[in-house]
Recover the amino acids of this structure.
């Protein structure tokens, strides 16, 4: 049966657990089904488990199983795919997928969007001349850019040389129906930290270098060694899986934090896990507009975050949380100690953050902004 709805093909490096990918899930689940069809094309792999987070049953998932080397090897395959399916829009995201605008252009896809969601682990501050050059090289094939933060928007204009009129800034939206505040910290099944007398700091993210959970572990070690009360009552949850799991587990042992740090692993019940935290910490070395940070704020948690990327656009220092320098465990430990010692401030910041997210970062605002782009309306 023919389907007259225009098709959008979203091209990503992989479709697995991550903030960028979670943003796509939120967008597809929120967008009215009658407006567009969708296909997810992963240059590497679509994780079946993660794909199940997409609630719509009309979304097709394609894994290209790309190996090492330049993506030009995939051009013929993608060209044929674009010619066969005739998408109205191809939407690539981040540098790893940017070069796929070339086969989209060759296949005469009418609208080729490219989204910049945040820095990669190999270029954490956007300073690489090589990657600036690559973005400049592919820019003629891109119709319009989406930047998820002011920092990324400025980067595209000032370092890559993209005309400001070709860029739309669209911040992520948070699902405030899934992430909700609670009056008191909730118990988590299987958690060693359910005692209500404890103060639980938590973070959620893939265990990789750019997320810098190592600095958080070191900072937490400084905190508990500096205060007998913190040693008794402060605890740390680290939620996520990834390549640094064994290294971080070893660091916990070296810091003598066994029993005070819970390496939770990868979980799908993040809303419930956040309800079991008192304070959320984002120690990243680089960020765009973090979905996880927005989710924590919607959950009523005060934030301690590094002063990088889009974090200052979300966290109002001293009002909804505390901003600290990146890669600085000593400063992070001071912030942990300040909120550990002030439960009233924790509650006050949590309320302010929740109000800010609900007022300024709704899923519907994000979805409507993308709809206008997909329909060719730039304003």
């Amino acid at each position: 049966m023919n389907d007259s709805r225009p098709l959008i093909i979203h091209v990503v490096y992989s479709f697995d657990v991550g903030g960028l990918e979670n943003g796509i899930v939120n967008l597809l689940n929120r967008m009215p089904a009658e407006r567009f069809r969708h296909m997810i094309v992963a240059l590497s792999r679509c994780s079946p488990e993660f794909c199940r987070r997409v609630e719509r049953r009309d979304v097709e998932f394609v894994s290209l199983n790309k190996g090492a080397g330049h993506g030009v090897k995939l051009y013929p395959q993608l060209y044929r795919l674009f010619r066969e399916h005739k998408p109205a829009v191809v939407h690539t995201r981040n540098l790893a997928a940017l070069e796929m605008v070339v086969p989209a252009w060759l296949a005469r896809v009418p609208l080729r969007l490219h989204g910049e969601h945040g820095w990669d682990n190999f270029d954490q501050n956007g300073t690489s001349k090589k990657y600036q050059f690559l973005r400049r090289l592919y820019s003629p094939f891109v119709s319009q850019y989406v930047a998820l933060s002011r920092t990324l928007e400025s980067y595209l204009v000032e370092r890559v040389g993209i005309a400001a009129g070709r860029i739309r800034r669209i911040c992520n939206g948070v699902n405030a129906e899934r992430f909700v505040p609670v009056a008191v910290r909730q118990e988590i099944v299987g958690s060693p930290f359910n005692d209500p007398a404890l103060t639980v700091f938590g973070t959620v993210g893939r265990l990789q270098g750019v997320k810098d959970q190592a600095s958080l572990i070191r900072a937490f070690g400084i905190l508990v060694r500096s205060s007998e009360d913190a040693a008794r009552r402060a605890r740390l949850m680290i939620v996520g899986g990834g390549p640094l799991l064994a290294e971080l587990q070893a660091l916990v042992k070296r810091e003598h934090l066994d029993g005070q740090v819970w390496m939770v692993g990868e979980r799908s019940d993040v809303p419930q896990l956040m309800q079991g935290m008192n304070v959320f910490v984002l120690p990243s070395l680089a960020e765009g507009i973090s979905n996880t940070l927005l989710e924590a704020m919607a959950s009523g948690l005060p934030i301690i975050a590094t002063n990088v990327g889009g974090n200052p656009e979300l966290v109002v220092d001293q009002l909804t949380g505390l901003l600290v320098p990146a890669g600085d465990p000593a400063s992070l430990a001071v912030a942990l100690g300040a909120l550990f010692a002030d439960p009233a401030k924790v509650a006050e910041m949590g309320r302010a953050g929740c109000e800010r997210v609900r007022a300024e970062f709704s899923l519907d605002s994000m979805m409507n902004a993308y709809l206008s782009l997909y329909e060719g309306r730039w304003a």
